[in-house]
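Sample entry (158 residues):
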Amino acid sequence: MRTKAKFEKVSLETFLQSGTEQTYENILLPKRATAKSAGYDFFAPTDIDLEPGETLTVATGIRALMPDNWCLMIFPRSGLGFKFRVRLDNTVGIIDADYCNAPNEGHIFVKITNEGAKTLHVPAKNAFAQGIFTQYFLTEDDDVTTERTGGLGSTDKK
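Predicted structure, serialized as tokens:
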């Protein structure tokens, strides 16, 4: 059983379903900016340009492996939210521990919208989102045994 989290790139084959080989080579693994940072910065694999009101789905090329009772929460980078009113379309992305076993290898996508009045430009290899790992707990009457069979948004599909 895994006791710590780890980031990896998805395979080139999986990434090519949503990006190019050149973009794949630009992928940087998330990392913290300082020793006391809670969030792991996710870096743009290509330039991000968002006009006010525009939405973009970023294929990060990243997957997260973590202990069974953990999840990874994805947020916009604080400065981008403050300066540009950038938000995630699902408000907070929740990456479940078993997502890494999905058919898409747990490829993390981040869908962002610029709700501000200024154009957002994030150069490739610059941080645009952040992920925070957290442990969660179960209720005493939890009896779920269902296994994940799909990828993004699949846990409610039977």
